[in-house]
Amino acid sequence: MNEMQSTAKDNLMAPQGQAGQLFAVSPYCEPNSEAIPFTDNYEHLEALEEEALLMLLSGSARSGNIAWPKEGTSCCRIYTKMGLTADDFTPAKLESLLARMSMVNKMRENAAIRSGVKLFFPIFCRENNLDAFDQKILLLLLMNGTSKIFRETFSHCGFFEDTRGVKIKIILSLLCKDYREALEKRKHFGRYAPLVAREIIFFRTDHENRSTHLIDDLVTTNDRHIRYITGDNQLYNSTYSEISIERSSIKLDKVILPDSIKEQLVRQVDRYFKRRDNLLARRLDDFLEYGTALTLFFHGPSGTGKTMMARALAHHYNRQLITVNLACTRYRWELESVMNQAFREAALLQGFIFFDEADDIFKEGSDLARMLLIQIEKAKCVVIFATNKAGSLDPAMERRLSIKIHFPLPDQEQRMKIWHALLPDFIRLAPDIDLESLNNRYPFSGGLIKNTIFLALNAAEEEETGTPVITRQMLEQVADLQTIQMVADNKHCKICKPEKRIDTLPLSDRQRNDLKNIAEAFQYSKEHKPGLNVLISATNIETAVHAAHALAAQCELKVKVIKFGDMDNFDQAIRLADPVSQGKITLMDYAFSQTTGEAHLLLIVDQNGVIEWRETAKHNDMGINLSARSVVTALLDRLGHYPGLCCVAMHECPNTNIPLEFHTHLKLEYPPEEMQIYQWEEHLKCGAVTGDDLANLVEQHPMHIVEIDSIMHRASIQSLIEGKAHQLSLETVKIVIERYRGKNKAPVLFGRK
Predict the structure, then answer these.
(1) CA-CA distance, 340 to 342, in Å (whole number)?
(2) pLDDT at 271 over 50
(3) Which of 127, 458, 495, 569 is the most buried (most CB within 10 A)?
(4) By three-state DSSP, how is residue 138 classified?
(5) What proportions of the chain, in percent to the nearest 5, are helix, strand and coil?
(6) Residue 403 pairs with which residues in a beta bridge?
(7) The CATH number of domain 237-406 is 2.40.110.10
């Protein structure tokens, strides 16, 4: 090694000091010489600042726009500190110094990367496929936006300083050697050039004053990109409320899901990142140019862990999660801006981009889907979509989904794990709490279990002055509230606590005992083969409903009431969202959904008496009866597999036609005559009515108690219409009975066709 080469190597090995040390490097420096790596990103930016200054001076000297400044000026001090002299202010010398500086910086940069130092400028350029000329443009704009020294030098070179940016013709004059090269490099500012297409630079010229010539336009770089390159990502907050950037603390082992799902996701993401870190694979991505993102599609009922899984993946790989929620975005231009920023952040931070509640994205023919496709094509990151229902996917969107994962509702074992995982150690549970029993009674999703624990904890903190204690009553009250809220706005369904008790029902002692025996049979079925189906019939539907409520109270269950008027509505797809799956389902599917289980008595009320087993078995040639028959068949099939307690309340039907799917048929008889007479006496308290009159009335018109109440209500209205407000007579009552019952004992008014 000659003396000049030895000097070059010594300078490369020396710590970073004055720029003059770097300028002394020999042009014969060996490319493989060992260089001192940059210690951090800021040291690298300082070196890039000096390189940008030389770039500015070299370009200005080539145009003849610069001379050595007067002694004592700020520019003179800057140049002197850089190790420059007046003799260096020639195009050839400045060009030579710039080449040496660029070479040294590149060598130190590579050494730093090999040693594990994170330098954001080269990372940014690599991820955005910026070539050497693009990098020079970005460096000039970066220093123009961050370096005071660069701006002073910019003015000294005879260029007008504009806070909005730098003119394209100035950039071309500084970076291009001649007119021919400048014409060729204009393409770097074109619409599809990486710097413009990726919104790394943008035009700042006022629309009114904008020239027809591209080179007269002002360009600047995005402040977000400056923040990234300078390393102050922690200071950045998204300008859109639809985007949140966070570092998740949720670990994978906290996500209660089947191991097969977690293993599949981790395996696929591992492979993707290994491929991205591989130089050959990255070159392949660059060659393909588009369609190299890993897109994960999570679908399943609400509260099954889709969002939690996205956060756990981000934590597992120590990457930031960019969450996007487009539900509140109304205008197309807002959607485009939000998505542009979201994907930009994913590229800058190399994080996961997560579209939560993405139901609208996957509507077939959606404009939102088409806009998103453009972003996915260019993305080089992991994109996760979460939706409660898969729906009908646009074929173009479905083709770009790498992996589709269904998140099922947790089974009994998984629900138990969720209860234990979400109950904090610092909360005391009362001795009366049986989590296993609670888990069986409330087959909730993970999200509902979390809500239940949170609300119970709030109640415990309100009642306890010391360590909070959660009691069984607190958890059950909150769980009931969760269940009721799920169907609060549902006109077809009602979940409630039963108010009736068996001992208070206006029935004979024998039939009260029948209800108690059914309750004991249900307890037996829970221990052996789950499932008990009861058919309750009566001439009055409300009597059957009251009996079902009393049975639920005896079994310590809530009641889930499903009312339907005709079979078609029962099996027709309606705008009804399942409380767990959130999907549009039929009333029948809703009735037998997992939200019931052992937590409720499922009560199906045939309001209009359309379930007639004998009729559906005949007249198969009639369309309406065929429709009813198919629905009844589906109903019986559901009953055969239902694991809980189900009661079907309907009008009187013969015992000979009871399907085998029902374990028992409770045919409610009229209450004892003395009970009916007593009820009439409560309403007819006038002296004109004798006990014999009431006995004859009961003999001629036996009724359930609720029927008597309804008849008296209508008789009172009839008296008011006739102007006899205080003269309710037995004759008026008989008129109302005859009017609404007709010649038959079976009532017309109370539901029978």
Answers:
(1) 6
(2) yes
(3) 495
(4) helix
(5) 55, 10, 35
(6) 296
(7) no
Long-range pairs, 221-225, Cβ under 8 A, ≥24: 221/138, 221/141, 221/142, 221/145, 223/145, 224/341, 224/344, 224/345, 224/348, 225/124, 225/200, 225/348
Tell me the C-alpha to C-alpha distance, in Å, between residue 376 and each of 353, 387, 519. Answer: 11, 18, 58
**95 with 103: CB under 8 angstroms?**
no
pLDDT in the model for residue 620: 42
φ, ψ of residue 666 to 5 degrees: the values are: -105, 105
pLDDT digits (tens, 9 = 90+) for 362-379: 665 566 777 787 788 777
Distances (CA, A) of 188 to 132, 138, 201, 337: 11, 11, 11, 23
Sign of CA dihedral 531, 537, 540, 541: positive
pTM given for the model: 0.60
Residues 8/33, Cβ–Cβ less than 8 Å? yes
Q: Are strands 600-606 and 201-203 parallel, antiparallel or unpaired?
A: unpaired
Which percentage of the chain shows pLDDT scores above 70?
75
User: Lowest-confidence range among 99-108, 582-591, 671-680?
Assistant: 582-591
Contacts of 227 (CB under 8 A, 6+ apart): 233, 235, 236
Terminal C-alpha separation, the chain? 110
Check if the beta carbon of residue 449 is closer than 8 Å to that of residue 487. Answer: no
